[in-house]
Structure formats: C-alpha cells, structure tokens
Design goal:
The protein has 7 helices and 3 strands. The chain is mainly alpha-helical. The chain has a 3-stranded mixed beta sheet with strand order 1-3-2. Strand 2 and strand 3 form a beta hairpin. Helix 1 packs parallel to helix 2.
C-alpha cells in the first residue's frame, strides 16, 4: 500500500509544478530521505521512511514565495526570521492535498511525525478545526468557506 500512496503523492506533486528528483541523499537530512533544494523536492527512496512526509515538504515549497523557492535549501525554518513560520498553513495545505488525491489522513499525519501530535492534528482536521486557515486564505490559495478545496496549489504572490 505504501508504494501506491507514494506514486499518488509523486504524481500530484509533479502535476502542480514542483520538480521532484530521486537521488542519493546523505544519512542526515532534516526529514529522513527528503531535502528541499531551491524549489525542487529531492528524495532518496532508500532513506524515505514515510511517503506522506513528501507531501508535507512539498507544502513548504508550495507556500514559499517565488523568491524563496529560488534560494531556500535544507531546513526551511533556518531561512526565516525568528517567529516567522508557516507550519500551520503547511499542515492545512497537506490536508487539502491528501483529500484531493484521496489518500488516508494517517499517511501524512503518521504516528512518528508532528512531535507526537499527529493524532491530535487528525482530530482537529477531521472536526474542521482549521487552525491557520486565515494564513492560507491570505496567501490567495483558498477561500475559508470552501476549504479544503483549493483555488491554487502554488503560491504566486510575494509577502
């Protein structure tokens, strides 16, 4: 089943315009088997533990401004000023994407992710408690009324 989820995820990511490249990555990456490199999502199938992590990391690329996509590599947070974080919007983007491609929520929000809060996040999302939705709407990617339906999968506006 993991392979089928991986194929759906990779197909979706490519379809929205995020380049995905399979390659050998060092053992130590922020997320095992995944690295963001200037708008490209690199992944090592031998080191990738959870296919859903690819969808989440694609969300980081999708929510970057076009300028950020050209320069950010590695840990996204290290490129941001202290206190500036889009994680809540990335979580919502990931949720909208998994609903769109019809994969189980647990593929993205797996038990070993989200600092132990995956089950809590699942409960919030399934109960339509969309923390951070105004940020995703402000980015022009969805309307708050229609979420999880998206108007755009990639952010086009600058901050």
């Amino acid at each position: 089943m993991q392979r089928a989820h991986l194929e759906k995820i990779l197909s979706f990511i490519n379809s929205i315009g995020i380049p995905v490249q399979e390659c050998d990555l060092p053992t130590e990456t922020f997320i095992p088997g995944i690295k963001i490199d200037k708008g490209t999502l690199l992944y090592d199938p031998e080191k990738l533990k959870y296919p859903g992590d690819l969808l989440h990391e694609a969300g980081h690329i999708a929510l970057m401004t076009p300028e950020e996509r050209r320069k950010i590599a590695g840990d996204v947070a290290s490129f941001r000023p202290p206190g500036v974080d889009d994680e809540v919007a990335v979580i919502l983007w990931s949720y909208a994407a998994l609903k769109h491609i019809k994969i189980p929520i647990e593929v993205v929000f797996h038990e070993n992710g989200y600092k132990g809060d995956a089950q809590w996040l699942i409960e919030q999302l399934e109960n339509k408690t969309y923390i951070g939705l105004p940020l995703l709407s402000w980015m022009g990617m969805c309307s708050e009324q229609d979420f999880p339906k998206m108007k755009a999968w990639m952010r086009t506006q600058s901050a």
